[in-house]
Amino acid sequence: MIDFKKMAQTYDTPLYIYDFDHIKNRFETLKKAFKARKSIIAYAVKANSNLSLLKMLASLEAGADCVSIGEIKRALLAGIPKYKIVFSGVGKKDEEISEALKLDILFINVESEAELERVEELARGLGKKARISIRVNPDIDPKTHPYISTGLSQNKFGVDIETAKGMYLKANNSSFLEPVGIHFHIGSQLTDIEPIKEAAVKVADLTRSLIKVGVDIRFFDVGGGLGVVYDNESTIEPYDYAQAILSAMKGLDLTIVCEPGRYVVANGGYFLTRVLYEKRNGDKRFIIVDGGMNDLLRPSLYNAYHKVEIVDKKGAKEPADIVGPVCESGDFFAKEVKLPPTQRGDLVVVHSAGAYGFVMSSNYNSRPRPAEVAVEKGSSRLIRARESFEDLIAKEIEFL
Ligand code: LLP
Question: What does DSSP say about strands 308-310 and 347-350: parallel, antiparallel, or unpaired?
Answer without folding.
Answer: antiparallel
